[in-house]
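Hi F.,

I've been meaning to write this up properly since the lab meeting, where we talked about keeping a consistent format for the predictions we share between groups. The idea is simple: the sequence comes first, exactly as it goes in, then the structure tokens exactly as they come out, then a line or two of notes. No screenshots and no reformatting. I'm using this chain as the first example so we have something concrete to point to.
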Amino acid sequence: MRFKIIHKYFFRELLISFVLSITAFNMILMMERILKFSMLLSGVGASAYDFLKIILLVQPQLFLLTIPMSLMTAVLFTYGRLNADNEIIVLKAVGVSFAALTRPVFFFGFLCFAASAFNSFYLGPATSKALRHNVTSIIINKSPMAIKEGVFYTLFKNVVVLVREKPSDRTMKGVFIYDKRDDKRHWTIFAKEGNINVYGEGGIEFVLKNGGVFLPDNNSITKIAFGSYNMMINFKPETNSQISELTPLEVLRRTKETTGEERIAVFLEFHRRLALPLLVLIISFFSPAFAMISVKTGKLGGLSLAMLVFLAYYSMLIYFEKLARTGSIPHVVAGWTPFLIMLICSVYFFREENSR
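Output, unedited:
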């Protein structure tokens, strides 16, 4: 009964440290994305509720990185503190082995592995797709209301809109549009009046009346007068990252549709989707033994050592992936070499600590 109480005590400490760690890491990694979405959506008058939905949809994309980081930080915090307070020494003195002391970590690590695998195979791709649809929907539906009188509107890529008067959200007077979506010829459009309509899931239509289109060509300008002119803009936000919307099996199927460097990049993404959840299991062996060192590094030793280990791991991952992209090594070697190095280190540290 006493041994079960010890396990519950260790597990509760791990859970508290893990929640605090994953919250902190997600907030840090989210700062850049929040700034990007703020710049993108503030111009269309997105509400606080819209931003909240986007922040929640971004979280699963970060979990693939922050779950292993948070698990290791939690273990180093918990076992480092217990070691510093001599609690682990007392438990060993009464006959509790190091392997028995780390059982809560293995159980907690398995839960984190299941959550990370679920995130990699289902939740992450699903929320990435939902994020793209939400951002597109917000911009498409609120863009007509965001166009102001006498203000150059530049949210549409390669299109500038200026309106002299705007009697309502979707009606305009004195319209000027500069369209440079065609690299070879830039269009300048003037119209006395017009309407803005939303069509489909990703498009905006300008219905212009009584105006003209000016087409520059070398040293001349061609003017085409119109009574009614429809201009379509298919909006595709830069936040669209299709590879993140695919499950690992879909990523593997994508390799059959690509060639060259793009094919290698898709293979590397596939290896990363599998290796990062499995890394959680490796950390369950590595962290408790490595925590015995953190007692000598002060109160912030756990966080410092965790950041150092992951900096080394991700540096190796980036280095080997670059070698694979240049064709120096096979993509399989690049995707799994950092994982194997962590596995060897984990087995070594665990055996050394368990033999004491």
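Notes:
The radius of gyration is 28 Å.
The CA atoms of residues 289 and 353 lie 6 Å apart.

If this format works for you, I'll send the rest the same way.

G.
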